[in-house]
Amino acid sequence: MRGLRESLAFRGARLRSVFARTRGSLAQRGLAGTLARVLQELRGRGPARPRTTYAEPKDDATPFALPTSDAPRVSIVIPVYNKIAYTLACLRSLGEHAGETSFEVIVVDDGSSDATPQRLAGVGGIRAIRNAKNLGFIGSCNTGAAEARGEYVLFLNNDTVVTAGWLDALVRCIERTPRAGLVGSKLVYPDGRLQEAGGIVFDDGSGWNVGRFGDPDDPRYSFRREVDYCSGAAILLRRALFERLGRFDARYTPAYYEDTDLAFAVRAAGLEVHVEPASVVVHFEGITSGTDTASGTKRYQVVNRDKFVGKWKDALARQPKPGTPITVAATHRAKHRVLIVDATTPMPDHDSGSLRMVNLMRVLADLGCQTSFLPENRLYVERYTAALQELGVEALYAPYAQDPLKLLRERGREFDLVILSRHYVAAPYLGLVRLHAPQARVVFDTVDLHYLREQRAAELAGDAALARHAAATRAQELRLIRECDVTLVVSPVEQALLVQDAPGARVEVLSNVHEVYGCRRPFGERSDLVFVGGFQHPPNTDAVAWFVGEVFPHVRTELPDVRVHVIGSRVPEAIRALADDRVIVHGYVEDILPYMDGCRVSIAPLRYGAGVKGKVNMAMSCGLPVVATSAAVEGMHVRVGEDVLVADDPVAFAADVVRLYRDETLWNTLSANGLANVERHFSFAAARAAVERLFVDTGRARP
C-alpha cells in the first residue's frame, strides 16, 4: 500500500506538472509549436548496438592479410597455444574492424602442437614468434612486448573476437583521461551476455566481474569509469610504463592474477585503471585453460591469489569488503555520488543550457564525483547519451531505468547530492528524494528563473494568459527554493532577486561554464554578423525577428554587403521566411567555431529573458566582440563600452553594429576584455569553486 501511495503521488505530481507546462507552452508557442516541442523531447531510441551472437570458430585455411603498419601506434600482442581456429577468427576480426589507429600484430606461439605454425604462415601482416620452450601466458606476453614498436602495447587473448571501433575507443580513453595508465575493454560472451565491465577486488583478494551474465547495454555497465582491474583478455597501456613496471610479474607464472597485479602496480605508480565500455570484445572464456580451478592451468587462479594478497596487503586494506553493494563497490573510489535529474539528455551543440549541464558534469568528475544522470523522458539519444558515458557519467535510460520510484527505492541511499533541474522536473521528484535519499543534500537548479523570463514575456506581449502562467510558475519555483537545501541560479541579478522573493533560502550562483578558446583570427580577416541560439527557446525567435525586421535595414544602409548568419536548431517557419541573400538561415550547425573565428560581430538582440546568455559567453570565449541588448547581458559582469556594446533601441543597436564593424581599435579592445570576462566569471576554474560549495554544510536547517 505504501508503494502504491508513493506511485500515485508521484504520477499525479508529474501529470500536474505536464499540464501546467503544456498550458504555458500553448500560451507562448501556440499549438503547432507545442506539438513540435513535445516531439523533440520524445525523440530517441534504444542503445545503438544490436545484440549479436557468435558461433564457435571453425578452422579456415584461406590465406588473408591484416592492414598493419610499419610505424604502429599500438602493438597488439597475442599469446597462443593450440586452438588455431580461435586464433584465426581473432586475427580476421582485427582486419575486419581495423579503424583509424595504426597497429602491428605480434603473435607469440607458445609451442603449439596443432597446425598453428602452418596456419600463421598463411596470414600476411603479422609477426609470428615461436617460443623455444613453453613459457606460459605471462612469459609469452612479456616476450611479445619485448618485440613491440608501438607507443602502446595491447594484450589480446587469442580466444577473442573484436568489434567495430574497439581499438580507437581504447586509445581515445587513455589519451583523453589524463591519469589513465591502463584501460580495458568491455567483454561479452559469444551468446551476447556480458562477461565483464571491469573488475572489483575486495580486501581479501577475491574478485568480481562487474555485470557478469547481465545485459551489455545496461547503463550500469556502459559508462567509462575507474576500476580495480580489467581482465588481461584485452588491456592497453603505454609500452614505456609496462617496461618501467617490470612487465608482468613472473611470480604468477604460468598465469592468473598477473592482470590484477599489473593494475595494482599501475595505481602504485600514481595512475588509474579504467574500463572503456565503448570498446567491446567477444571472449570465448576458458578455451585454452578451461574453467575448472581444481586442475590444469586454471588451478593457478587459486594458488596465485595467496601470492597476490601477500604482495599487496597494504593496498588491499583500502579495498571494499566482500558483501559491499556492487553499485557502490564498482565506484568505491568516488569522493561523492551525485544524482542529476533533468528534462532530457543534454545536447550541448544545440543550446546553452545543455552545454552548462554537460560542463557541470565535467566539473563534478574533476572533483572526484561519480555522477548518475536521469533524463525525465528516460530516452537513449544516440551520440549524446554515449557522450555522457564517455565522460564517466552513468547515463540512465529506459527500459533499464524505466521507473524512477524503483531507482530511488533501490539506490537512493547511495547519493550524497541530488540535483533536480528545472521547476517542472523538480516538483514531482522532491518528495521521493526526501523519502528515499534522506541523507542527500537536495539542490534545485533553476537553469534560469523561469518565472522572471515568463513575467517579462507577458509584459512585452501584454498577454494576460502569459501573466497568469508566470504567476503559477513563480509560486512553484519559490516553493521549491524554500523546500530544497540549496538553489542554483546563473547570475547575481537572480540571486539578489531571491533575497527579496525567497528570504532565508540558500542561493548559490553557478553560471554558464565555457572553455576559453581565445581570439584566433584578426579583425581584417573577418566579415559578417552572426547570431547563435536554439529556437526551442521563444526569446531567440523574437530576437531574430526583431533584428531582421527593425535593426538590420539600418545596418544595410551603411554596410550594404554585410550578411547575418542565423545559427540554431529547430528553426520555425517564421524565421526561415526571413532568409534572403543577406540573411542566411543555417539552422543547426554541428561546429560553430568556424563562425566564431570568421565573423566580425556577434549579435544578441534579445528583448526579454532571464539568466545568463550562452550566446554572449560563447562569442566572448572566442574573442568575438558582441553587440547586445540590456536583457542579453544581464548578470554577466560586463562593462558597457569596454567588454560589450549595449543598445535597446533599433537605431542605436544598428549604429553600434556599424561602429564596431568598422573600428579595429574598438574591436580589439572588446575582444581582449571579453576574453578576460569569461576567464574570470565563466571558466571551469570559476565553476569548480561554485560546485565545491555545494558539498559544504552551511548549517542551515533542512526544510
Descriptors for this entry?
703 residues, alpha/beta, Spore Coat Polysaccharide Biosynthesis Protein SpsA, Chain A, Rossmann fold, 3 domains, ten-stranded mixed β-sheet, seven-stranded parallel β-sheet, 27 strands, 17% strand, globular
Characterise the protein shown here.
The chain is of the alpha/beta class and 703 residues long. It has 3 domains: 70-321, Spore Coat Polysaccharide Biosynthesis Protein SpsA, Chain A; 334-509, Rossmann fold, CATH 3.40.50; 523-682, Rossmann fold (3-Layer(aba) Sandwich), CATH 3.40.50. The chain is 40% helix and 17% strand. The chain has 24 helices and 27 strands. Helix 19 (573-576) links the parallel strand 23 (564-567) and strand 24 (583-587). Helix 1 (2-41) packs across helix 16 (464-483), helix 11 (352-366) crosses helix 24 (684-694) and helix 18 (538-558) crosses helix 22 (650-662). Mean pLDDT is 91; it is low at 292-296.
